[in-house]
## 1
Amino acid sequence: MLNMDQKIVIVGAGVAGVNAATKLVDNGYPGKNITIIDMGKSPYERKPEEVMTGFLGAGGWSDGKLTYHTAIGGHLSKYVGEEKAMSLMDEVINNFKRFHPKPEEVQCSNPEAEPDFIKPYFGLRLFPVWHVGTDYLHEIGKNWYDYLVSKGVNFIWETKVTRIDFKTQEIFTDERTYGDFDNKYDRLIFAVGKSGIDFAQSLQEKYTFPTEPKPVQIGVRFEAPQHHFQKLIDISYDFKLYRKFEDKGVSLRSFCTNNNAAYVAVEETYGDYSYNGHAKKDMTFKNDMTNFGILMEIRGVENPFEWSRKVVKECQIKDKGLYYSPSRNVSQTSEGNEVEAFQIGLEELSKVKKSFHGYFDYITDFIEDMKKVFPTLGDDWGIYIPEVKYLSPEPLVDYSDLSLKEHSNVHFVGDALSARGITVSGAQGILSIEKILEEEWVDTGDVTMFG
Ligand SMILES: Cc1cc2nc3c(=O)[nH]c(=O)nc-3n(C[C@H](O)[C@H](O)[C@H](O)COP(=O)(O)OP(=O)(O)OC[C@H]3O[C@@H](n4cnc5c(N)ncnc54)[C@H](O)[C@@H]3O)c2cc1C
């Protein structure tokens, strides 16, 4: 039995955590009994370069492409089926529109036909994407935050949760800057995203949850002038080229394409650099570049997490990631600084290939075939090494509300579970709350109860 005086604590104010809180208060749950703890900052304090931590989390603050298909970004339909998955994603997209200063500018690109010129070399995955516009994300963040605060939700910023005791239902930080919050929870939403992956891992080790097996996801961030790809961009803005080598357990895909005002972003995980990208909607930032990840999914690697970390570590020189190009130099960030990367030549590239245990050849072939499909490309490209998706060991959860099998009041959501994207993460946040809201409300006099 859960009464409305029970405390719901959300660790992580990313898209998963924020959508969970929104679902609660939209349905009348008292905001004063919801606490969100985040090691980043509020949308009023957070700087644009703080890419990974703070209100709206990672891509919700710095990119904002909302993919709208169950084949992209995690296992939502595995949990709830196709129809329900789509309706949860609708809720996330509507939340972004709801707090958008110009919701009419949120547009959906929905390409339909796979073009012939791609076919001999690549498959092309086509799916709808809602474009919120990077430049509006900070305003959306502020509006959304103001709404939650107006409903009484308690936020604790710049506070890193370092330990959780599932038995005593307590949360610990090194700083103990809880304020009014006494560190106990009745229900916990664990939504720490990628920046909290080491923490998720430590909980995993402590409580030895049963997990689902995971593949390695690693590659590079490819960048080139946009005109080489324009023919394809006209058909599909966020195109996804892919190819599969079933017998080798390897598949490759282009990932998270950015165009027009497209910038490469550094991600720092475990003190190492890897790369990602984002696009600005404000055309004063237009640089006519395109960037996307070329990501390999490699199955059958024993201990994929440690394997990926080792590769990433070996691809660092002078505490930076690497940049290789046959003709270009490192490009600039949207702030006008050089992207932090150490430029390498062919000799160092051969060391990178060794670190990738032979798998780098798949990336080289991918680029060579792109040169055939996009004939003007030639040597006019560069790659930032590495791009990596550390998939946290995914605990086995109850699919109906994403709660842990042995701790039914603890829900794993977003990138901390299986999501890889804004829409799926937000949808998982909402799903974790829905079952609570479905329970019958019982009025016990002073306190309204869920029965
Ligand atoms: C540069 C970039 C661009 C991206 N662009 C897109 C895109 O366009 N479209 C898309 O679909 N996906 C994109 N993504 C991926 C997407 O951002 C993530 O899949 C999504 O944000 C995951 O949501 P989440 O809420 O699970 O985690 P996050 O958004 O990562 O949020 C987790 C939050 O938890 C907090 N946290 C972590 N550990 C702790 C701790 N121990 N204590 C307290 N707080 C903690 C962090 O500060 C953070 O605010 C992008 C990612 C990056 C890095």
## 2
Amino acid sequence: MMDAHSAARVMERCEALGRISEEPDLLVRPYGSETMRRANDTVASWMREAGMSTSRDEIGNLIGRYEGTEDKTLVLGSHLDSVRDAGKYDGILGVMVALACVEQLHDRGVRLPFSVDVVAFADEEGLRFGTTFLGSSAYAGAFDKSRLSLTDRDGETLSEVVRAFGGDPDALENAGRNNRDLLGYCEVHIEQGPVLEQKGLPVGVVTAINGQSRVRVGFVGEAGHAGTVPMEGRRDALCAAAQFVLDVESTAKAEPRAVATVGEISTLPGAVNVIPGEAEQSLDLRHPEDAVRERLRSHLERRAGEIATSRGCEHRWQVRQESAAVPTDPDLSALIGKAIEDTGLCVHRLPSGAGHDAAQVAALTNVAMLFVRCKEGISHNPAESVKREDVGVAIDVMSRLLALLAQDGRPNYRAETSQEISP
Ligand SMILES: [Zn+2]
């Protein structure tokens, strides 16, 4: 089943999609943008060439469907939006590998006893509105309509952007896919970490996806003249924010497996000779156990308040997004393990530090994930790199998975030989 031609085509398509960008020299493809529309149109044409019918839902997820002989559906997919200055494989690879598997079926004239839906989610990264999984949460019927009033940098609301992208914002809340026919959801994704490379393995099976919290944290002090206001008694909002950034770092360092990042900070009025009157920052907090993450989040909220008080400032704390840790389905994961074993490779199991669409789709059906090795674990960076041979393995494993599911009718295989290994 190993098909070098398929892998080469996936690599070419990742290159082609990597050129569809809002900016000429870097990959930037936010939700609802003209380039997102072009990426969807391009992928839709490939889907149709592979014998699929295509449609889109209210949020703008692209769905390709390869009909089976019975009334059941397996969903494969990932996302087509990007971070700013992104790599070419994050998300995109998963959609392209899924498409390659369907293409192989189509080329051989094979119909499975279930349909295969390939979903290209329209927003996973949250670049435009600072909230992730807009696409997959809508698909899963878990869209939070309070997000519709969020604004992007230009002041456009999510509601306006959804409408301009061709959807009905008022319908989003009830736009989830019906799950009666679903066998499950499998997502191929680059690992975005160094574990598989260290193990010398092209692919691995994901055990769980870390939960995460995204918070907007604001400090409000008092703006003033940088030359005339004495240091004593200043209410410098950026100093409070800076102190909080270091607190975030030390808090995460003290907790095993926790990661926390302040990736954005802005000040008002934002001039060299004015004491910052306001500072606003992001906070991204992740952990594989929800209870630990919630404890850290509460601790940091308390610290933000204490820092503000000690500096005569006020603070704002707005939780923008929370996603629970999601274990993957043991049966579907074991079947992926079996598919890997059948290729002659050993099965490595690892948790995901990054969030993925699969975590949202878990509200709808069983989910599983296959990670693909990426060079030095680098991601969210134009240096993101995967080997064509590894892509070939991923296509092979996913094609075998389809064949195993076709034999089984349902994912009920449990591997005896594989074992849990922590990264
Ligand atoms: Zn991704």
